[in-house]
Structure formats: C-alpha cells, structure tokens
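Weekly modeling sync, notes
Attendees: S.R. (lead), two postdocs, one rotation student

Agenda item 3: backlog of single-chain predictions. S.R. asked that every request posted to the team notebook include the full sequence so nobody has to chase files. The rotation student volunteered to paste the first one in as an example of the format we agreed on. Action items at the bottom.

Example entry:
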Amino acid sequence: MADSKRIAELKEKVALLPESPGIYQFLGADGRVIYVGKAKNLKRRVYSYFTSKANESAKVRVMVSRIADLRHTVVATENEAFLLENSMIKSLQPRYNILLKDDKTYPWIVIRNEPFPRVQSTRRRERDGSRYFGPYASVYIQKTVLDLVRSIHSLRTCSLNLSPEAIAKGKYSVCLEYHIGNCKGPCVGLQSETEYREGIELVTSLLRGDTRETTEYLRAKMVGAAAEMRFEEAAVYKKRIEALAAYQSKSVVVSNTLTNLDVFSLVVDDDAAYCNFMRIADGAVVNSFTVELKPGLEDRPQDILTYAISRIAEQLPGGRLSREAIVPLLPAQELFEGVTFTVPQRGDKLHLLELSERNSRLYRLEKLKQIEIKDPERHTNRILAALQKELHLSVPPRHIECFDNSNLQGTNPVASCVVFRDAKPARKEYRHFNIKTVVGANDFASMEEVIGRRYRRLLDEDAELPQLIVVDGGKGQLRFAYETLLRLGIADRVAIVGLAKRIEEVYFPHDSTPYYLDRNSEALKVLMHIRDEAHRFGITFHRKKRSLAFIKSELESIPTLGNRSVEKLLQRFRTLSRIRTASETELSELIGRQRAAEVIRYFREVPADGTKEGK
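Predicted structure, as returned to the notebook:
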C-alpha cells in the first residue's frame, strides 16, 4: 500500500513537469541522487519510467522501487541536456548510471598558445596557456564549427615553428594551402603576426558565441568586393554571412571562461519565494536544485536570498560555498566569509543567472499547479489577492466585467461584455450589444452607450454590480466609460481600469500616466485573458452580424420581396445556400407562390459565384 502511494505521489510530480529539454535526477530515501538522465521532453521521458513496459527491465524495476523523489533542470536544447547529464554524472556518480571517466568524452576546439596560433580539434585539455572552447555534443558539430571558422578566416594548419627567428632565417617556403587561398603565407613573411592576431580575435569571439564582429568584417569585405566589380568574391562573402547567421555553437551549460562558482536566483511571490542553486565546476554545471521558502511579512528580497543561501549551503558537501557566487542582488555578505558575490551585467555569468532564473520560475509554476489541483480555492484567492494589490482595489475582484467594441470601417458596430467570476469565465453571463445611437466608427461614444445600457439595466433590476470593470482601450475609452458611471451614480461603488493593447498599459481614472504591470505577473495574465476573451466574443458576433447583413442585402435586391418576406426567409433558412437549394414548395408555404417563383428565378440567373448570366 505504501509503495502504491509513493508511485502515485511521484506521478503527480511528473504530471507537472514541463515539456522542455533538460535533465532529471532520481533521489533515494536518503536524499542522494541515484540516477541522472537527459530528455528532449522531460514530462514524457520521466513518465515512461512509471509504465508497465518500462518496468520489464529488472534494473529499471529495482531503480524505480528505490525512487523517493525527483528533481529536474531545464535547458535550451537537447545538446545542452546531453552535456549537462555528462557533467552531473561525473560529479554526483549516481549508482544506476554508467560512470563517465574524464573530459576526453567530448571534443573541444583549441586555439594554441604559439606564434601564429593554430585552431584545432582536441579531446585533451591541458594547462599550457591555450584557449579551449566547448565541449561539443558531437564530433559532427565540432567539425562544422571548425569548417566555418576556416572558411571565413585564412588560418595556417601546418605544424611549423613560426617564431620570428625561424621566419627570419628564410628556411620555409609556401605550400599548397597558400596557392589555393587557404593560407596567407606567414611562414615566409607574407602576413604579419599583427594581422594574423586580428583574425584570431575574430575567431575567439565567434567561438564564444558572439558573431557580430565577424559578421561586420565579412559584410565590409562583401561591400568592398562588390564596389570593385568582383561579384563572385562578393557572393562568397555573402554565403559566409548566411552560414554565420545560422550558426549557434554557444552553450550556457558549459563554458571554458568560467571556473568554479555557485549561481543563485530568486523569484518572490506574496506568500512564497523560490531560490534555484547551480554549482559550476571547471566550467560545467555539476549540481542544480530549487528550494521553496516562506518569507515573513516584512522580509526584503535581500533577506530572503541571504536565508536561502544559508539553507542551501547546509545541504552542500562540507557545507561550503564556492569562492565566487553569482546572484541577482547582493545578500548580507558578512555572513559568508571568503565568498565573493557578483551581480553580472553581461557575458557567460549573466547567461548562467538567466538559466537559473528560468528554473526558479518553472519550479514556481509547478508548485502553483499543485495548489490549483489540490486546493483550487486557495489558488483562486491568491490570484484575486494579486489583482487587488496590483490594481489598488479595496476588495478582491470576484466579479469582473470587460467591454470591447467591434466594427469594420464603421459598419455593423457591436460591443461585447464578458463576465469573470473568481478569475474564471462565466460564459452564460456574456452579453452582446448592437450599437443603436452612434453613427460610424466612434469607439468612445460606443463605449459610453454600452456602459450606460449595461449598468442602468443592472440598477433597474437591483442586480449585483461587479467589483471591477475592464475597458479594452486607453485613456479615451476609459474617460467616457468613467463619466457614464458618474452619471449613473456608481463611480464610487465600482472600480474601473483601461487596458491598452499596444504594450499592455493599464490606465486609471484621473491619472494620464499609464501603469505597467510586471510582464510575468498573474494579475496581468488575468487581465489579458479577460480582454482577449471580450475581443474574441465581440469579433464572433460582428462576423455573424456582417454575414446576416450581406444575406439581407442580397435578398432585398429580389423584385417583389418586401421586408417581411426577407425576415421570414432569414429566420427559416439562415444562409443563402439553404435558400438557393430550397424547393418551390418550401418557399411557397413561407412567402407565397408568386414570390417563391421570383426567388427561384433570381438564383437561377445569379449562380453561386455571383456572376449574372447573360440573356
């Protein structure tokens, strides 16, 4: 019974995993990692362990029986998951993994520390002053990068000692690579070391993932060649620029420019905070997990991060942090003796912090989904509390109504009203409005009419008023809507905001300056959902009305058909195709024999494509 409960709890966690590339860790009862695996789709891969087919293997069956918990880390690509799995297996040495030996597992690209440096492939990293880039997930990827580098820059491939003394002796001669244009002959002094080094710096920036300098260099060469009528050469540079645009070799999982450090990121909600930890060793991520904290009422983000780092340090081997830690903001540094905290602004360290923040946010989403499934009332209250706080409301907006206008160049103007209760659509309460008093495309006046009709009726019926009204539009629509509420005497009883579509600006009455909600906040997501639902509902009604208007116009062009006959046909058949295929008997029963004959004659002369036959 206990085992089935354990599997059920694990399956609940698996159901919340993202469908993204990453690595997963299975933990035993003692909290140690017993298996590390990679996945193109985390949810699908991890779920496969809990199916009967997966358990056909005795080894898998034993491992699954010992899983007490699971963790995961999300990355950008499957190749990055491959590399992260490699580094974590070497670091954690899980019991059920085939242990990898050393860094010769994957290929690297090296720029040799020598005069006129060579750019080569290697599987061995040595402390010889050379610069190493990688590792690459496969030899194919590494070879593709090397070919790209060599096609753009003319670099030597020979093993000659090109010291100034050796070149000065004049004992070398150019080889075939020089004659076919792959080398500029530094061995005989035809290329200076300064010029060669400039090319090496471009190669270095390219291998680090920055293609801008190389792109600018190639573009200048292409323009120069084209200006001198060397179009074939210009076409070669153009192809290299296109190849460079498609090139992506940079991995945030492994970086040769980083040594040993820790990474901490923090995401804070009103009632919880989430801190992700990553440990980097020799440029590779070797450990990663996220912890949840319950901050106090007056805790600042700095205090929360300080506590989170202290708590995470207790779980690390020896209880020690690395000498350098990357953080989004500085904690209380005096508590962590010997640790230098860095808030990165650019480069590899910033990329690692962004990766850590992404994992914090995904962990937060998983926790919120768990709450939504297990305690929907708490989930709803949290969303309403976020709306109340962000929009400065006096009460949680359990009843929200949103309005949107729709017209096409002033024709068939309509409006929609959608209703949300407890942050969920109440579709039975949605309402459509035909604009009656406004001529042409006037969104302001249309909004004024609809708001007036809606709430005058609710007041007459003594019905419940919403706690929040959302107007789809900016300052103009909001002003007209608010003035209507003032005339009705309910402006002090109902809060109202405008939501502009361009960059999701929120407007309040009496404030001409827009308010910008956090792009990741749940309050903004709820407002956008309400606004989009009002737009969808309004557009659907508008299209339907336009279609009926077109049918009515078509029927009114038939001789002897009056308004009453047209209305009867519309109510009965709804579409032109049904009227066109109706029998004379059906039409005669509805509008009389003579008018039925006119309808049949009209559609015989005007085929379905709208072209009238000649007589």
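Discussion: group reviewed the output briefly. Confidence is low (pLDDT under 50) at residues 99-104, 609-615.
Action items: rotation student to repeat for the remaining queue; S.R. to check formatting next week.
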